[in-house]
Amino acid sequence: MTRKINLTPIRWPIGAASAAAIFALVWLLSKPDAQLFDASRISVISAWTGALAVLCLLYIKRYALALWLHGALAACFWTRIFAGADQERSRAFGPYGLGDQLTWIITDDLFPLFCIATLTSLMLIAASLGGARLYRRAGKAVQ
Amino acid sequence: MLAGFTLYHYGMVAGYALLFVAVHLLLVLAALRYAGRRTPTWPFGAGAAMLALASAALLFGSTQRAELTARLAQNLAKEIPGVCQQAQLLIAGMGGDASPDDEPLREKIQQALRAHFSQAARSRFEDDRYAPVSVVESGQDPKWGDLVIALRTHGKGRDPVHVGCYNQYEHRYSGFSGATKPYWRWDADPIPFENIVFFRQDPGSQPVVEYEPAQP
Lengths: 143, 216
Known about the structure:
The structure holds two protein chains of two kinds.
Chain A: H1 12-29, H2 41-61, H3 63-90, H4 98-107, H5 111-142
Helix pairs in contact in A: 1-3, 2-3, 2-5, 3-4, 3-5
Chain B: H1 3-34, H2 42-93, H3 103-125, E1 133-138, E2 147-151, E3 161-167, H4 168-173, E4 196-201, E5 209-213
Antiparallel strand pairs in B: 1-2, 2-3, 3-4, 4-5
Helix pairs in contact in B: 1-2, 2-3
């Protein structure tokens, strides 16, 4: 027996506001002026995966809200990675193209975070697909 | 001088955020359509437009950065020797050359030099969080009193290169010998006999230090 998923829709201003709040909160908590791995690598990775785990619980409680927050979380992860990489780039003379930067993100220190962010994005796409299906089924059941 | 770099960084992060939104919008729309939902076509257009805008912004930012660093290099080559010259004038103006044995006067001149260096560093390099230069010493080192600016270059194993002013006035009269040199003075030998010496490390081959006498 699976738990019942709460499919109650929420109005978009509430969803957008809470997404913006989560985005701002995560950015404030993650010390935007510090390099990503100034904190220990394990703690950053576990914080990010922990946020994803909480999000999975939220999907059961309130699916529509969780979709909004999932988007906010994915935006946080990606912009945080890019900001860290671009800070590295802006703090050096000499040629350092976008390609070098991407290589640095994908293959170097930021690789674990890149994996988590990719996973978050894939989960977001899957969740919105699943949401479309769930809501259609719920709509049919009501009718 | 450095505010452009902060602006550049924020602009790039905003461009990345837009890129993120565009890519996810397009992916979700494509997935919905693939799953058989009927979606209107205008969100695709909006997503494509955002994608194009974000890419253009990122490319523009990249070219801006090259210009910013070129301009910064020019400014540095002009301004740091100027700071050294001003320091030299300051010593001459206070009569430092005339009385090397006058202890209180020397003390006063040293204070003025340090204030001049820290003021110069603060007014030019305060905003260095996102810039390729940073202040290593602004006259605050109790033994040496140099002004040292580090220029970073990208790449593993590349040490920063330094430019600045050696404060020989303080050093020469402090009767100070055999002490451990700070690392920015390691390859600096022999330093010209001036009170304030502008120096520039050669980015190609680290050990070479160029001097230009800081004469007005």
